[in-house]
Amino acid sequence: MINESTNRGDAIIKILQAANVIGGLTLAKIGEKVHLITASQQLKEYLSSLEKNGLIAFQKGEQVYRTTYKGMHFLQTYNHTIELIAMVEKEHGSYCDAS
Fold it and tell me: Which residues are CB-contacts of 99 (< 8 A; sequence separation ≥ 6)?
């Protein structure tokens, strides 16, 4: 089950970030890092979807998941977008502050 403060998009980003380490991570370690129950069907569904979309790869011999080049590019784009939004909000105020 997803932590209440985490939405689906956040969970996907956290999974890609967690698996973006030398050697990759096991299912259990990813579950710990992203605060999803390790045996969770939901975590397995996220990993399956990420794998189908080429963002993460499962290494059968080592039993670990690794973020792919495409996944790393996705993370870079995501992080850049977050930075741009923060800059715009800093310069012009949050859109929530509109009168």
Answer: none
pLDDT digits (tens, 9 = 90+) for 74-98: 999 999 999 999 998 888 876 555 5
Measuring CA to CA, how many Å separate 33 from each of 28, 30, 89, 91?
Answer: 9, 5, 30, 34
Query: What is the distance between the alpha carbons of residues 38 and 18, in angstroms, rounded to a whole number?
Result: 14
> Exposed/middle/buried for 76, CB within 10 Å: 0-12, 13-18, 19+?
exposed
Q: Dihedral sign for Cα 44, 46, 14, 61, please.
A: positive
Altogether, the residues listed in the chain come to a count of 99
Q: What is the pTM of this model?
A: 0.79
Task: Report the CATH fold assignment for 8-90.
Answer: Arc Repressor Mutant, subunit A (1.10.10)
The predicted-structure confidence for 25-49, as pLDDT tens digits, reads as follows 999 899 888 887 645 888 999 999 9
| CA atoms 64, 22, 50, 4: torsion sign | positive
